[in-house]
Amino acid sequence: MTERTDVAAVRRWVRRTRSAHRERGETLGNFYFAVLFVVIVGGMLHRQLAAVFWPGAPNVSELAAYSLAAALAGGLYLALRRLGPLALSRPAASWLLTAPVSRRRLLLPSLGLAVTAAAAAGALGAFAIVGHVAARPVPAEVFASLPAGGALLGGALMLTALGAQGERRWSSWSDDAAYLLLAAGLAGLVADSALAAPRAPAGWPAAWVVAPAAGALAVVVLAFFLLAVRGLAGTPNDRILEASRTAGTFADSAFGVEPSFVTEMVERRYWARRRLRSLRLPERLPVLVAQDLLMVRRRPRRLLWLAGGAALPSLLAHAPGWVLAVALLAGGMVAAGVTTASVRTDAGNPWMLRMLGLSSRTAILHRLLVPGVLAALWYTAALILLDVLGDLPPGPWWALGVALGPVGAVAAVRKARTGFVDNSLLPLDTPMGSIATGPLLAAFAGVDVLILGLPTIVQLAQGGPLSWTGVIVQAAVAGFGARAYLSGTTAADRVELSAH
Amino acid sequence: MDHSAIEVRGLSVSYGSTPVLVDVDLTVPIGAGVCITGENGIGKSTLLRCITSLQRPDGGEVEVFGGPPGSTPEFWRAVATTVEPPTWYPGLTAREHAELVCRAHGLGPQDAGIDEALGRFGLTSHADAIPPSLSSGQKQRLTLALTLLRPSRLLILDEPEQRLDPEGRASVAAMLAAYLEDGGTVLIASHDEVFAAAAGTSVVGMADLHTP
Questions:
Q1: Number of structural domains, chain A?
Q2: Range of the structural domain that residue A179 is part of
Q3: Is B103 on the interface with A (CB under 8 A)?
Q4: The model's pTM
Q5: What is the mean pLDDT of chain A?
Q6: Would B152 disulfide with which of A262, B80, B92, B93, CB 3.0-4.6 Å?
């Protein structure tokens, strides 16, 4: 049997060899740059950061505090599960995972990093909740113990996610629970905005609740941590490799400023896990519409989220009208995006379009139909809800939702057609430094088309009652815009989606 | 009609300073089957890519059914090819891809014989799989099944025997022979002259296509 090697010694050797290839002072330069970046960004955004984490006065209710806690906990758990949470760097996964080294010692630094990151996220979340909810002045013991409790909760969530990483059945059950927690939190926030729930009383949260809860949580976290360290070596290889690939894809995506790497990975993993049964495509419908309907049928959970998400614009009911309008328009684009993965495929490589023998005009026209219906339904639901909650002046808002359908569809399809970021474009020189234009253009592709919803933005910004004329103007702008998009970017005598 | 299915005259392609195709001529009459052979790197795939308009030559002329090859829907309804690597729609099974292709060409799944075709290619038990989860050989079979299922007048296939087991090769060769018997035209590039003969195609060496 091969003798085990000291993993710390191997890592030290790797670090020493790598640093030998670096220029002198490079590490110091990187450190200096990182500190400078934090100071400059902190200086630029300190007002916004204060508004997010510690506004001058409490501005939401006690109900919102619990809802926010539930949503943040659910969201943090899901993020941790998506990231692993236990991952190794790609070189370590390739070379050290298969080497005769102690797996526990190999994975311990990753565990430490993950626990620290989750605890930091939890502490920040708890700090923001106190900042938004607790009446001033906040008692010192609450100020100290609640973020500590948040950090402990973050650690507990991370260690739970670690347990789920090694156990497939537990992972699907806990993911469902986290989704429910997130949904319940968001529902609570919507209810809070609709009901104008009472503010937290002075002295909230009571120190006699927070301190024992934090203590109990500390015991749980310690027990979980010891169990995690004990079972660390038993984490299945495939799960660690998958998490390392995820981390690597995120790194590639960030380094190459190419978000499509992550989109593609998420899409591929989602379908690889599903067990499908071939269905007949609905006859009588154009074939691409039939395909899109099949995709809608196969994504019931996403539809459920979209249905719930229709309530989210009401969270912005008290924000300026144009903010609500832009968020509303963007929401419809997300709803329309349920079926646009096929457009992304065709934009990347038109092999299937050539097999189908359809013109780009026919293909895009048919690919716009289902997204158009989804967007129209979402806009209608969101506007009806805002109307029912009394956040909108009188008017036929449902009709405006229907009229907005093509806007969401065109935006989603345009976004899907963007393809890879063009990093060959010249950067823009500004007084703040140079800005890469390729990622900027890619980020705004699709969002730019939401300008077709300008009549709605103006309507909501002015805050007057909605007339039928307003609806007709929006319908005409959306209809003409969609038609112009179709005739301007496709051709009846070209199969490929992009003209080269 | 007096024109050929494929007419290539004086085709030249270089990669940097390396000429790959120099004054290549090729005529494939309608209803004929031609297999181009030659060692790796001699330009077989480049020639097929130029004929299918997927690559622009440096010089020369290409005509397919009397007209320039292009990206029109009419061209791609007449020509089916495996020159490009395939892509697959997310969330669609192998059988659904086949049905999608047939329905786009106005064929019902029954009329097109999708289940029989998948069976002939040994894909019946993988009909519900998503193509990215298939092995490379199975993907190759699926690509060929889709190419042969849909109606076309000209098949342009790059090494169709690649990654197929002996049984699969015989089966594909028989299907290509049947396609030729039905009046279709076939142009393939291959290293396997036995496969080419079984498919009913006449073998032409790539070196012989260069104008002396």
A1: 3
A2: 55-255
A3: yes
A4: 0.85
A5: 88
A6: B80
